[in-house]
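Hey,
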Amino acid sequence: MIEIILDTETTGLTPSTDKIIEIACIELDNHTPTGKKFHTFINPEMKITEGAYQTHGITSEFLNDKPKFKEVAKEFLDFIKDSKLVIHNADFDLAFLNKELKDADLGVLGKERVVDTLFIARDKFPGLQNSLDALCKRFKIDNSRREKHSALLDCDLLTKVYIDLLDKKEPTFDLSIKDTNTSNNDLIDLKNRKGIIVEISEEEVKEHKSFLKKNIPKSFILS
């Protein structure tokens, strides 16, 4: 199953008047990163609010020579295709993306294809802080590079958080011991089994003592 971890940065907090300035995506296949990524900065052709700048540190000057949304929209849509989109606080990013897509006459992204990790976290940890930083701390994920918000870095962190939220960090193996000689494949009852004792010969004892004297003479007193 292909899923896309997605994050954006914007000029401000209002989708109707602000715009996207950065999009990042990381592809997962059965909850494992494939190495495929989509990342771009975007020239919003407008000023960045002071509050947004304090959050992500991206300046208007830096974005002046970057492509406009319409110029990267098709590449973005080709990357995500019809995959599930995994987003933290999805309503925010989805509102901005759909406004930009509508303005470019490219339709909208439906909520039914979105997995919101904020909702998963709230269900799993009710009453606790469930920001991306808080979840990184809870799962012992190193977020020391996150001095400012960054769509690509946040996607990387969210990938690790998402896997932990789903308890998919370690593969699950069936370690049950089964008796393959029984027709119904019932579990063997080991409670009353006697310990298995393997007898060794005098020659094997002598060889073992010889090995100990030769290799670790100060660690053992041999009779």
